[in-house]
Design brief:
The chain is an all-alpha fold. The protein has one domain (3-351). The protein is 73% helix and 0% strand. The protein has helices at residues 3-29, 39-52, 55-67, 74-80, 86-102, 110-118, 127-148, 151-173, 180-183, 194-209, 213-241, 254-277, 283-292, 294-312, 321-343. The chain is globular, with a radius of gyration of 21 Å. The two termini are 26 Å apart.
């Protein structure tokens, strides 16, 4: 493997593993988010939640880097990539439905299980798998647009996407009674899919500046700044409402959108440096193995989190959330990663994890 490919591989794998841990940390932090009357616990929740809000955008940006810059036919794309996302969606949906049934929830006859599956996620975090199905349907067309446009044209699209994406947050924040996206019929052209375009664009810009250490440090500083702004904006808006309000946590809110750019630069840059310093024969396979498990960890971690919380009660007890949240996230992430690595020893589970 060449030095350039080694750096790219390590950069992508580092970003995927970090984004996966951020998802776990976010979901642990969210447990006490609505306890606004207990400011000590709530501030810890707000801090960690604000710090990790870029996790889903990061996954989508990584997909943009890996998918949009490739050249392959549409049949090849659907055969090699699209069909891979269906088995995990079905397997993990059925897994949680089976668990819920064992816990007493009823879905009815077998055909009602199919209806339930078709109507959306059976547990909240599986929304991402459903969203990926819709997003991937448009990847072949996005790829053609990517290769047919100049950087200036890509900038224009991203500028329009950013404005349209931020509009719902701005509309609520300033109490504007105009749904511009619906009125002008542009809603379907925007949304989370724009993060794929953003990821491919930010990657190209980063590669141009990757030799400059100041660029990485600036990205780190700006990521910290926009995470803090998300935290403070969430507090200010919640205090005004008199209860916890996640308006600024939305994946398409202005602060999260900008923060995602710098989070990507930080993690990609960290991974690229790691790739340059590691020996291909020893360091990278371990990182790649962790990266290969991230989808499975995303799917199983809620199950592990609930079992851990039931067994310890740490998040509902008197323990300080400042240490309880990261400790719980570390344990849940580690157990989830171990479980997925064990499952992947059986070939059949490689298709669903």
């Amino acid at each position: 493997m060449s030095q350039g490919k080694k750096s790219f591989s390590a950069a992508i794998d580092t970003a995927k593993v970090a984004a996966c841990f951020m998802v776990v940390l976010l979901h642990v932090a969210a447990i006490n988010f609505y306890s606004f009357d207990d400011h000590g616990q709530w501030w810890a929740s707000n801090f960690y939640d604000s710090l990790t809000r870029t996790c889903v955008p990061l996954f989508l940006m990584i997909s943009g880097v890996l998918l949009l810059r490739k050249q392959e036919s549409m049949p090849e794309f659907f055969k090699k990539r699209f069909v891979r996302i269906i088995p995990p969606l079905l397997f993990w949906s059925l897994f949680y439905m089976a668990w819920n049934s064992w816990q007493g929830e009823r879905y009815g006859r077998w055909y009602e299980w199919i209806t339930t599956l078709a109507n959306g996620p059976v547990t909240f975090h599986l929304w991402y798998l459903y969203a990926i199905v819709g997003i991937y349907l448009f990847v072949p067309f996005l790829r053609k647009i990517w290769h047919a446009t100049k950087q200036s044209e890509r900038k224009l699209y991203l500028a329009l996407w950013a404005v349209a994406s931020c509009w719902p947050t701005i509309k609520v924040l300033f109490d504007i009674d105009v749904d511009a996206l619906e009125v002008y019929g542009i809603g379907p052209f925007f949304g989370l899919v724009g993060y794929l375009f953003l990821g491919a664009y930010v990657h190209d810009v980063y590669v141009e500046h990757s030799a400059k250490r100041q660029y990485w440090l600036l990205s780190l500083g700006l990521f910290a700044l926009f995470s803090v702004l998300t935290m403070l904006a969430t507090y200010a808006y919640s205090a005004q409402a008199g209860e916890a309000d996640p308006l600024f946590y939305d994946y398409l809110s202005p602060l999260v959108l900008v923060s995602s750019i710098y989070a990507f630069n930080v993690l990609y840059g960290l991974g690229a440096r790691l790739g340059k310093s590691l020996d291909v024969g020893t360091g990278l396979p371990g990182l790649k193995k962790l990266s290969a498990c991230t989808l499975g960890v995303y799917c199983i971690h809620i199950f592990i989190l609930h079992r851990f919380d039931e067994a310890t009660g740490i998040m509902e007890g008197d323990a300080s959330s400042w240490w309880a949240i990261p400790v719980t996230a570390f344990v849940v992430f580690s157990v989830s990663m171990g479980a997925i690595m064990l499952l992947r020893r059986f070939r059949a589970f490689e298709y669903v994890t």
